Amino acid sequence: MAGFLVPPWYKVDPLSPTAFIFTNIAWGATLATAAFSSGKAAYQTHRIWRHGRRASVYTIMLWLELSACIIMSILLWSFLTNKVQLSFQLLFSLVCLWTIQIQCLMQIIINRVSMIMYDEDRAERLKWIVAMVLGVLNITIFIIWIPARLQISPTWIHIDFILDRIVKGIFCLVDISLNLYFVYLVKTMLIADGLKKYITLFRWNLAMIFVSLSLDVIIIGMMSLPNNFFYIQFHPFMYLVKLHIEMNMADLIAKLAKANNSFGDFSQPGNSGDAGAGGKGHSVLEGHHQCAGMCNIVTVASLPSSMGISRQEQDPLEDSIHELRG
Fold first, then answer.
1. More confident site: 302 or 57
2. By the 8 A CB rule, do 230 and 21 touch?
3. Exposed (0-12), middle (13-18) or buried (19+): which is 237, by Cβ within 10 Å?
4. For 22-41, how does the pLDDT look when each residue is reduced to its tens digit (9 = 90+)?
5. Burial class of residue 250 (count of CB atoms within 10 Å of its CB; 0-12, 13-18, 19+)
6. By CB distance 3.0 to 4.6 Å, which of 229, 269, 285, 307 could disulfide with 250?
């Protein structure tokens, strides 16, 4: 019996034995990544809660992203292994979960960018512009992708064949643009002002841009596979990897903001537990996360000149944390 709104002429694209194996591998990789990401998310959430006794917008987005990826992975695996039949409800749920994934992930990145922007209004505008651009993409997928996957007509399928790739390409450009902007801000507002310790952050973010771009290219390439749903199984895994990168980025920023202004102290991000030794370790990620709730960010530009402290001697990331703690 066909699912809700599935036309009688719907043709099932069966998985080949090889594709079935890769589907299970993808699901296993997704669950493993989800386990590691959940552990790190729980750790960061605990530190934020211990400091402020309330959930920040960052932690809400973090857990929404994790939940959306896990639920989407389960639904897709159940469908591809014939445990759940195709229906409008299934497709609608998948698009809703995808919407949560891209919106939360991009807002987490924007929150990171806003930490080094001296103009709060500009950061707010950036947040809404990206949200609206992605919102248009989300609405487009709701309108085009669902009828195409229901095989309503060849016209819908052809439009989706082109449009889906365009949407993925635009999302890739938004992702890369935000990360490149962050790299630019780190170089011009931190490193150029004498904070050489952020060279590590600059270089590591460049490497992560390459990783993120590679994941997007792989997804776009997999869209040409015979089964129309096979590539979607890799979506949750891809977004979980991107989320894990963001959490590691927060840990790296936490360590660097607390380090002496010398290059080479930190070569890679890790758990920020060592940054919290001695009771001082409410890391910068707390401010990073709380700024996701659009808290006021203290920047060098806002410090009174009468303090007699030059820009080269100030760390805007560290300043923002002291203000938030106060």
1. 57
2. no
3. buried
4. 888 989 999 999 999 999 99
5. buried
6. 285
Reported pTM: 0.77
- The first and second tokens of residue 67, run together, are 């939940």
**Where is average pLDDT lowest: 11-20, 42-51, 157-166, 284-293?**
284-293
Architecture of domain 17-258: Up-down Bundle (1.20)
Q: Where are the domains of the chain?
A: 17-258
In angstroms, the CA 81 to CA 263 distance is 51
Q: Using alpha carbons, select from 100, 134, 131 the residue that is nearest to residue 235.
A: 100
188-to-122, 125, 195, 296 alpha-carbon distances in Å: 17, 21, 10, 22
For 181-184, the CB contacts below 8 A with 24+ separation are 181/113, 182/109, 182/112, 182/113, 182/116, 183/209
